[in-house]
Design brief:
Blueprint (H helix, E strand, L loop, with lengths): L3 E6 L5 H9 L3 E6 L9 E4 L22 H16 L4 E4 L1 H9 L4 E2 L19 E7 L4 H6 L2 E6 L4 E2 L7 E6 L4 E5 L5 E4 L19 H11 L4
Parallel strand pairs: 1-2, 1-3, 3-4, 4-11
Antiparallel strand pairs: 5-8, 6-7, 6-9, 9-10, 10-11
Helix pairs in contact: 2-3
């Protein structure tokens, strides 16, 4: 039986994420502010807006207005799935949410730190840039030690949450991926759902490997 994947998304839905999960053999269900993950084999935290700075103990220093309902729902879901030792994949905001859920903090506005990271939330502002992956990481296994990805975000991880290990970085030092060692938990700052299938692009790697790994783990494969 195909694994059932809960996609926690914005109110606008998550068609690219759904397509990527379907292509990898999973059954996606996209919800805005889901209250319960019962019956699902894994959780995908989709991209979206900024997390309320109060959630990581800071005042607002450049964050966009948060969606407080989504913050609360996803922090609870993330805790529930990690406690149940179920797979979690976080993408862009999802990586940041995962970090905050584990007690980490965020850089609220990258500013001029990197030309590769757009402050706008329009897809046409995707920036393509190389990232460097740790040699023994999943990303290096799939794509090698240095490879191109897409990005659009103005925030990034700062202090890592408890247990998280960074495994990839941009040229400017922004954390681009992190894992929870010993668990099927992966967070990515870039957007693999827009680098695969009908959204494949010649200037980046294929994001399909990310979703195959995730769906396999949700199905119980090691």
């Amino acid at each position: 039986m195909a694994p059932k994947i809960l996609l926690s998304s914005s109110a606008d839905g998550a068609p690219y994420y759904e397509a990527a999960i379907l292509a990898a053999g999973g059954v996606p269900t996209a919800c805005y502010c889901p209250s319960d993950g019962a019956g699902f084999d894994g959780l995908l935290l989709c991209g979206g807006g900024d997390i309320a700075p109060a959630r990581f103990g800071q005042e607002n220093h450049g964050s966009h207005p948060p969606d407080l309902l989504r913050d609360a729902a996803e922090l609870k879901l993330t805790g529930d799935f990690i406690a149940a030792d179920k797979p979690v994949l976080g993408i862009c905001r999802g990586l940041q949410l995962l970090n905050v859920a584990l007690g980490g903090t965020l850089i609220q506005d990258l500013g001029p730190v990197s030309i590769f990271h757009s402050k706008e939330s329009d897809e046409v502002d995707d920036k393509v840039h190389p990232i460097r992956a740790e040699g023994d990481s999943l990303l290096a296994e799939w794509y090698g030690p240095l490879f191109p990805v897409n990005s659009y975000h103005h925030q990034a991880l700062d202090r890592l949450g408890k247990g998280l290990r960074a495994i990839a970085w941009s040229e400017s030092g922004v954390v681009e991926a992190a894992v929870l060692p010993g668990r099927a938990v992966l967070g990515l700052q870039f957007h693999p759902e827009r680098m695969t299938g009908s959204r494949s692009r010649p200037d980046t790697v294929d994001g399909a490997a990310v979703f195959r790994w995730f769906v396999d783990r949700c199905g119980g494969q090691n």
